[in-house]
Amino acid sequence: MIDPGNLLAEPSGESGPLLRAALDAPPATALTMVALSGPDAVGKTTQIRLLTRRRADTWDAGPLDAFDPRWRAAHDNDGGLAAWWFTDAPLSEVADVLACSYLERARHARTRRGLVLIDRGPAMLEASVTATAAVRLGLGHARAAEHARALLAPYADDLTAAFDGVSELLLLHAADPQDGAAQALARRNSTSPLYRAYQHTLHQHLHADPHPSDETIVTGTAPIMQVHRQLCHRLRTRGIDVPLPVIDRVRVIALGGLSESGKSTAGAYLAERHGSARLKIGYLLELAAARHRIADVYAVTPVEAAELLVDELDRFCAAHHYQRLASIESLHSDQLAAALKPLLGDGVLLCYLDTVLQARQERGVDGPGDVADRDTVKHARGADRIHQIADVVVPNNGPLYALQHRLDRLIRQHAQAWPQTAPHRTSLAGLSLPEPLNAFLHRLTAGLTHPRPLVDLVAVTGSAARGGYTDGWSDLDVLLLADEAAVTATAEVVARHEGLLGGVKLGITLISTAECRAGVLPSRLLHAVAAIAAGTTAVLWHVPGLRLPCPDPHTVAVAGATDAAQAAVQIRRLLLRRPLQVRALYKTAALLAKIVLGAQGSHHAADHEALAAFAALTGEPISCRGPGSSAEDVTALAQRVLGWWLAGLEAR
């Protein structure tokens, strides 16, 4: 229906052919008609556009003003459509034009086969006439509704027949009519008092008319594609076969920036390090152009370009159902970037790579002139203005590793955020360690935390944290969380008290908060951080309010790929050394088993547990159990684990 609040609205034409918005396709064997009703600016027309692109036999029934020639006179009225609607034309004429347009459009729709989508159904006809009567006659809602029903009574039988079998779904801005009217009006740049009154009564009527819950969708502030998923789900429950969008389950990082700013480098790193799908915006738009027979896809409006882009991205994600992260590059226009936000909401992260001109010129392989020429095109399209609307601006004027670390933090903060938890503190008594180790840990913790804290966290890891410490075999592993500035002072505290250990080997590791939160750690330390966050590792002390991320198993497994190669090399080094270091060889073999098993989803913290799982998996028992094992048994174990690892590499 034509929006009476839009004084610049133009008539769509005098004839009433169906407006087609999909590829040509053979007519289907049956007709299905769906009407989307709802107040202004709720997204009905947008949802119809999205649906018509996904099914070849789907048709848009067209706007009402294409189905009655009197709409042109209404538009040509001296005061425009709004004056004709609210003041000039008799109310009975407005009702007649509306009713006749609804009927004529429905008649044309029934000449088609396939799925026909109607923008506004019978519920909207009565609501529109009711709201108009209330404004023009100064009536309350109840009396205005009675007057509207009387005006529409002559068309009642024809309307019932015309919409027989039509599924009607109602989209509402909010659950409360006053809130809904406020949202609708907020999306207008300017409104008249008449139009505001009209909207309030329109919402009141739509909310007063009872609708089953499965026929109503409250859009609120949800992204368009999230509403689209709800709509498709409702249609599918009615037996209407429409594709169910999946894009709302995928986090999209849209990369923008000027020439040689690092967009491609960032996309490649996100794919390699974080498993992101890497897609080119130009390629996706070309696919859309071919699919919908668009001669110049760069000539369409930014909103249409964004819808086409998201549609192709959704098709890709549906075909790659396991994908949860995707990057698209490169955003060539600030208007396209802005149009993605209403579609995807927080599901898209606008990321602008900010690089100074000198650095970009130095990176350009064809010289500064080429960079300048490409910048001219990008400036004309508004690529530089994406900086102003970006969710994240990533400086890229330094070395490559600095960009990579910034992208790691971006992923952890915005795209694949790990849950944050407060560490659980444990007493020394609960670890059941020998007294010398207790004394050392007590003095170490006191020295690192008093009179002022040098570190943010002190934790015991490894076998000592799990109650599996074995005197003469186990190390004492301590993990500290601190800034780099604390290294020297921490080393002095350790040196003062290390003599208390009585020869026990101390493995002390210090990591920074930034490394922890970005996940830039070896798999062993990622696993330790996850264990601390999960409360399964002993934390002796931490600063108040500390919250640590809990890395997901996939990230730990990906990091473990490199660690596994290093462990395999270390096993060979140890096998070549004489005298044989039995304990080191055993623990390295167990480490390799842990990493490989972890990649298969089988996670084990203790050495003996990992080796037992290895034995169960290979079907061959192992004869060594750690302390007291002979050199021959440990050598045989290490060779078996190494052979298992190599067999996976050599498999064809």
Task: Explain the overall architecture.
- The model is unreliable at 5-29 (pLDDT under 50).
- The chain is of the alpha/beta class.
- The protein contains 26 helices and 16 strands.
- The protein folds into four domains: 31-237, Rossmann fold (3-Layer(aba) Sandwich), CATH 3.40.50.300; 247-415, 3-Layer(aba) Sandwich (Rossmann fold), CATH 3.40.50.300; 420-551, Beta Polymerase, domain 2; 555-650.
In a nutshell, what does this entry contain?
The chain is of the alpha/beta class and 652 residues long. 51% of the residues lie in helices and 12% in strands. Strand 13 (476-481), helix 20 and strand 14 (506-511) form a beta-alpha-beta unit.
What are the SSEs and their pairings?
Blueprint: E1 31-37, H1 44-54, E2 58-60, H2 70-76, H3 80-88, H4 91-109, E3 114-119, H5 122-137, H6 141-152, H7 156-162, E4 167-172, H8 177-186, H9 193-208, E5 216-218, H10 224-237, E6 251-256, H11 263-274, E7 277-280, H12 281-292, H13 302-319, E8 325-331, H14 334-344, E9 348-354, H15 357-363, H16 368-381, H17 386-389, E10 392-395, H18 400-415, E11 420-421, H19 435-449, E12 457-461, E13 476-481, H20 487-497, E14 506-511, H21 513-518, H22 523-534, E15 538-542, E16 548-549, H23 553-576, H24 582-599, H25 607-618, H26 631-650
Parallel strand pairs: 1-3, 1-4, 2-3, 4-5, 6-8, 6-9, 7-8, 9-10, 13-14
Antiparallel strand pairs: 11-16, 12-13, 12-15
